[in-house]
Design goal:
The complex is a heterodimer of chains A (about 210) and B (about 230). Chain A has 4 helices and 13 strands. Chain A is an alpha/beta fold and about 210 residues long. In chain A, α2 runs parallel beside α3. The longest helix of chain A is centred in the first third of the chain and has 10 residues, at about 5-15. Chain B is an alpha/beta fold and about 230 residues long. Helix content of chain B is about 25%, strand content about 25%. Chain B is built from 7 helices and 11 strands. The longest helix of chain B is centred in the middle third of the chain and has 13 residues, at about 105-115. The chains are: A alpha/beta (about 210), B alpha/beta (about 230). Chains A and B meet through α2 and α3 of A and α4, α5 and α6 of B.
Chain lengths: ~210, ~230
């Protein structure tokens, strides 16, 4: 089955981010979304370590390690950017001021429960960062992930088996095969990619699916 | 005359007792008060509880304090990173305790301590393993978890400029936990890049007012992350 590349998924997510939105892009895959927001679109990126309005990575040699994003990568200032301390930064999330956050996931349930911080393995060192605050804070939580695990299991599930990050918090899931809307336990396929078909998605996801 | 300027990091940290709870500013290397941590290692206090967002990077700063065996427990949100090998080794060997706190709860617990709040209800982590055993409440149809403030004996933070009253400005995202940690500790020690005369900081731009600060030390050329990675 043909699938979207990670950059193509990122471009698809970027299309749904409206002009004027305040957006937090999670560490890892979601950071790719920034590369696909058109310059004509004024979108303000939030990074939880304390900045609104950051720009792309600096040229090599121009890095300033006092100016980093949540992934601890050097970024740049855009005109209009602002700095603030950590409690203010998380007030922006928890207080419902962020419009969209985009996160990765190990699993998402049909009810919008999210698992993305810990595999639960006995010798795994847990690390949560801002994932739980983002999950419950942003007005819309978008997930960007491959639909299947490496061994072919759907990551969109009836109920998460990994430790939860947040409950009933995800509204939309962008994958390499389709985009899913989650509402009140109903899963609606809003778009399919490549040669994905309703039948093939039903076989893979094993949940009742509606199609737009 | 009020003069919070300390002549050395050693002087500023002389009073840290064994068993102290120490907040250390920084988000990874940004804002990490490297020279104050060096001085704390030199000073020798042990059995410390350290509050930081992370649990050390590489082998310097906070990681060096952990490697020196001075820390009993770390309270943080994100210990595991590509270069957190010192913490990882201690944790997997059972030689250090970890209290894992969602980052926003960590920040708000610190803020609450500084603001005299006894406890607060937060929606973060409700229904997850990090809220297990905690009191919860439904308020206006939403579920919340009761969280308590995090106080500290000492806060070690890094700022950009400071004056003898302890007023501070910060630099870019190195601000991170500095202002809230300064308010939450009994004794706040700050390393600044530059000590300036009273009146030289624009009062409109003071981020941490001096009331939250006890000691200021000038470190004009702080070690940079880049140097550590050469």
């Amino acid at each position: 089955m043909s699938r979207l590349s990670r950059d193509q998924i990122a471009a698809r997510v970027a299309r749904d981010i409206p002009q004027g939105a305040y957006v937090n892009l999670g560490i890892g895959l979601p950071t790719l979304v920034a590369n696909h927001i058109p310059a004509s679109q004024e979108v303000i990126l939030h990074t939880e370590n304390g900045m609104l309005g950051f720009g792309p990575a600096p040229a090599k040699g121009d890095e300033d390690f006092d100016l980093i994003n949540a992934g601890k990568q050097p970024v740049t200032e855009l005109p209009g950017c602002a700095y603030f301390h950590h409690a203010d930064s998380f007030a922006m999330m928890r207080g419902g001021h962020l419009d969209v956050c985009v996160l990765g996931a190990f699993q998402v349930s049909r009810h919008g429960d999210l698992a993305n911080w810990h595999t639960g393995g006995a010798d795994a060192i847990p690390a949560v960062g801002g994932a739980m605050d983002l999950a419950i804070g942003a007005k819309d939580v978008y997930i960007m992930m491959d639909l299947l695990t490496k061994d072919g299991q759907s990551k969109l599930v009836q109920a998460c088996t990994y430790p939860l990050t947040g409950i009933r918090c995800v509204s939309r899931v962008y994958t390499d095969m389709a985009v899913f809307d989650l509402k009140n336990g109903e899963v609606t396929v809003v778009e399919m990619f490549g040669d994905a078909t309703p039948g093939a998605l039903r076989d893979l996801v094993k949940l009742p699916l509606k199609f737009n | 005359m009020i003069n919070k300027i300390a002549s050395s990091t050693a002087q500023a940290l002389a009073g840290v007792p064994d068993g102290a709870t120490v907040m250390i500013g920084g988000f990874g290397p940004a804002g990490q008060p490297m020279e104050l941590i060096d001085a704390l290692i030199e000073q020798g206090a042990k059995d410390l509880v350290v509050i930081n967002n992370n649990a050390g990077n590489g082998t310097f700063g906070l990681a060096a304090l952990l490697a020196a065996g001075r820390v009993r427990k770390v309270i943080c949100s994100f210990p595991r990173q590509a270069d957190s090998q010192v913490f990882d080794g201690l944790y997997l060997a059972g030689k250090i305790e970890l209290e894992l706190v969602p980052q926003g709860n960590l920040a708000e617990r610190i803020r609450a301590a500084g603001a005299g709040i006894g406890a607060f209800f937060t929606p973060t982590a409700y229904g997850t393993p990090l809220a297990e055993g905690k009191e919860t409440r439904e308020i206006d149809g939403r579920h919340y978890v009761l969280e308590y403030p995090l106080h500290a004996d000492y806060a070690l933070i890094k700022a950009d400029r400071g004056d003898r009253w302890g007023n501070l400005t910060y630099r870019k995202t190195a601000r991170n936990f500095g202002p809230i940690m300064a308010s939450a500790a009994k004794t706040t020690v700050v390393q600044v890049r530059e000590v300036v005369e009273l009146g030289q900081l624009d009062p409109e731009n003071v981020v941490t007012p001096g009331i939250f600060v006890q000691h200021v030390v000038e470190i004009s050329n702080p070690r940079a992350y880049r140097q550590e990675h050469k």
